[in-house]
Amino acid sequence: MHPSQLSIDAYNYLLPDERIAKFPLEVRDQSQMLVYENGCIQDSLFCDLPDLLQPGDLVILNNTRVIPARLILFKPTGGAIEVFCLDPVEMAHQDAMSAGSGVRWKCLVGGAKKWNDGLLIGVEIEHGGRKVMCRAARMEKRNDAFIIEFTWDDSTLVFSQFLESAGKIPLPPYFHREVEQSDLERYQTVFSKYQGSVAAPTASLHFTQRVFDALKDRGVTLEELTLHVGAGTFKPVSSETLSGHEMHSEWFSVSKKTLLKLRNREYKRLIVAGTTSLRTIESLYGLGAQLIRGGASDEMLSLTQWEMYDEQQHVPTLTEALDALLNYLDRRNLEFLHASSALLIAPSFQIRLAEAIITNFHQPKSTLLVLVSAFIGDDWRKVYEHAMEHDYRFLSYGDSSLLWRK
Across residues 379-388, what is the average pLDDT? Predict the structure, then answer.
């Protein structure tokens, strides 16, 4: 059976609201960590992660940084409209964040019916010791989102500064609370670098410098990639089967150095921190296969939701696929692979690279829970029942797990 026909009801479980962690622990690495391997479960703490790994292991992390993507803008009459920035239009995230006046973003709009065409809405911020009026114009509708053009009249102001002044961190809706001062630090990883996510790579919120130092002493290697997590991570599966669910494509970047390490298997075991990292790493094979088959665009490489499940006459090896990506970079004299992926990892998907995943506990009937099922099989229920019975905290600010692939 094609995974698109899987019933989402098969990934349901009872999650009481009181088990959802609404605030982080005082110390990041003191969260509980459930360890699953070969059908067995043990309880540990995240600070013990170095002791659970071996010299020569490789851990891959997502170094994205969450942007204050929620904006409250005002009509000339004083009415408020909420705008949620998703992705820049025809521009890389890094360029969009450093852009001057005239940048366009795809956005969700709350109360869009109150925003007539041609009506400028905006907000006044302080920059460089003076007041600057930033305005937004609604350009066009795209599916459930709008293209919004942001403008302002100060050439020294860039879009990231505008967001920092006017925006709010977009906490998950299941927190049912407003942003607090502590969230500005705790809803970011300690190693976040590149702005662009509208949701944190929550599996990595547990890492501390103490854990990194212990991993290094243990002989574990760390590599980073960048995947800007989109609002689709909050989107529940509302259809009866996965066929009715549309995955949002997410932009990512992987260095040539990391690709070479993967291609040459310069590690003992590969552990990825987070579903974002797993989707990125496993997408590499599909993108390389695209290049081999001649189906890739000359523009940025892109992977669709079900593409890696389609039967093909020629199935490249992993080495061939990674070689194709490296050759692609060499031909363009690039040090980083920039691509996008809408891959939905579900049961029957062939995991080719990762041997373990570090991840939090996910919502019922979510694509992230489906991913866990693809990784460890039906034992996901055993894992979640154990977590529920042993007072683990769930979702973004909740506890962690280390799951070894079956």
Answer: 98
